[in-house]
Amino acid sequence: MIVGPTGRHTVPWLLTLLLAAVLAGCAGGPRPGGAGQDWITESDEPPQRKRARTRVELAAGYFEQGQLTVALDEVKQAIQIDPTYAAAFNLRGLIYTALRDQRLAEDSFQQALRLDPRDGDTWHNLGWMYCQDGRYPASFDAFRRALEAPAYRGQPRTWLAWGVCQARAGQPAEAERTLARAFELDPGNPITMYNLALLLHQRGDDARAQFYARRLNNSELANAESLWLGVKIERRLGNREAAAQLGEQLRRRFPASREAGALERGAFDE
């Protein structure tokens, strides 16, 4: 299965997928209006929108800290202040996704899209929620809608999420192409590098897998899972010294990890 690597970087790595644009979305950002309309800036906001935005920004901070109940309460207050604020419903959807209440999450995202149907961040979040729920065709369609949204700046994140979901859906060839696009747009993303290395390793293309695994493991974002994958790739390529060096890093830096235990058992085919 293709997943985000676990270990000491679990939360920030996975948040790159889940937190599509909590802070950017909360700010409401300047958006182009329809034909003949001016850009809406923060100074144009009515007082109730400003109060709601402040609540949503607080909620986003609590959400990032894992305080989901407090975040949800802040979002509910924001919606009471301004029930037309799409970013509040978007964040509410993220919170319900984290709480694994898919029905309320979908309702929240759909309400956000009724208020702002061109918001790529909400389409991305809806797609990721569908992916977690195993509704892959709907997920892919939502990611496509996100990428087509005007002024959307999250393309690397959406290509990455789409590729991860294609792999989960049993579409490795499509996932590889999609993840390669994500890597092209954001070559420093550790989840992209890990999943590309894993996909290529699983289909026996370890020479190419080595490129992504080494790039990741030579960075400060290496973790137990990426080091263990690197060990297996180097072993299959016959690079015993490189595999031993990665194994030593794994033992030293993550001695209590599941991967360190697998290394001690010699469970290279698990």
UniProtKB/TrEMBL annotation:
<protein>
    <submittedName>
        <fullName>TPR repeat-containing protein YrrB</fullName>
    </submittedName>
</protein>
<dbReference type="Pfam" id="PF13414">
    <property type="entry name" value="TPR_11"/>
</dbReference>
<feature type="repeat" description="TPR">
    <location>
        <begin position="156"/>
        <end position="189"/>
    </location>
</feature>
<keyword id="KW-0802">TPR repeat</keyword>
<feature type="repeat" description="TPR">
    <location>
        <begin position="120"/>
        <end position="153"/>
    </location>
</feature>
<feature type="repeat" description="TPR">
    <location>
        <begin position="52"/>
        <end position="85"/>
    </location>
</feature>
<feature type="repeat" description="TPR">
    <location>
        <begin position="86"/>
        <end position="119"/>
    </location>
</feature>
<dbReference type="Pfam" id="PF13431">
    <property type="entry name" value="TPR_17"/>
</dbReference>
<dbReference type="Pfam" id="PF13428">
    <property type="entry name" value="TPR_14"/>
</dbReference>
<dbReference type="InterPro" id="IPR013360">
    <property type="entry name" value="Pilus_4_PilW"/>
</dbReference>
<dbReference type="InterPro" id="IPR019734">
    <property type="entry name" value="TPR_rpt"/>
</dbReference>
<dbReference type="InterPro" id="IPR011990">
    <property type="entry name" value="TPR-like_helical_dom_sf"/>
</dbReference>
